[in-house]
């Protein structure tokens, strides 16, 4: 059973997904601290000093691919657990994820309230 998440960082360039996920997360877990970033560089800056239990990271963003983001995370020594977020499951992405110990799985957009409940460890 996953450990309960109390702080979540969400990095995705899609602002509509931010709005939907923020509303769902507030309904599911009002006490959850959430940090949403549509710019991966701003997220990396925040993660240099901030901490969270889980990072949901979009694989494909125009400013920086999720894999490059993970490389930067490793350089700054941040070993946060990461769930990769994608629009479609590409077998190459699954293979690529094996290079990153902190990647614990993949999530397919759009995230449903049920999926969010599971990844937050609230489904018990």
Report what the structure shows.
InterPro entries: Bact_response_regulator, CheY-like_superfamily, Sig_transdc_resp-reg_receiver. The modification 4-aspartylphosphate is found at residue 58. Residues 7-124 form the Response regulatory domain. The protein is of the alpha/beta class. It has one domain (7-119): Response regulator (Rossmann fold). The chain is 39% helix and 22% strand. It is built from five helices and five strands, in the order E-H-E-H-E-H-E-H-E-H. The protein has helices spanning 15-28, 40-49, 66-75, 91-97, 113-119; strands at residues 7-11, 33-37, 54-58, 81-86, 103-108. Strands 2-1-3-4-5 form a five-stranded parallel sheet. Strand 3, helix 3 and strand 4 form a beta-alpha-beta unit. The chain is globular and about 35 Å long. 25% of the residues are buried.
Short description:
With 124 residues, the protein is an alpha/beta fold. The chain has helices at residues 15-28, 40-49, 66-75, 91-97, 113-119; strands at 7-11, 33-37, 54-58, 81-86, 103-108. The protein has a five-stranded parallel beta sheet.
């Amino acid at each position: 059973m996953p450990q309960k998440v109390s702080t979540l960082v969400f990095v995705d360039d899609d602002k509509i997904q931010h709005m939907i996920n923020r509303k769902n997360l507030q309904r599911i877990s009002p006490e959850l601290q959430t940090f949403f970033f549509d710019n991966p560089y701003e997220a990396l800056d925040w993660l240099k000093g901030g901490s969270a239990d889980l990072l949901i990271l979009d694989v494909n963003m125009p400013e920086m691919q999720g894999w490059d983001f993970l490389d930067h995370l490793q350089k700054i020594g941040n070993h946060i657990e990461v769930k990769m977020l994608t629009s479609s499951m590409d077998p190459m992405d699954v293979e690529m994820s094996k290079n990153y110990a902190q990647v614990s799985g993949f999530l397919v957009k759009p995230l449903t309230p049920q999926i969010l409940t599971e990844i937050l460890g609230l489904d018990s």
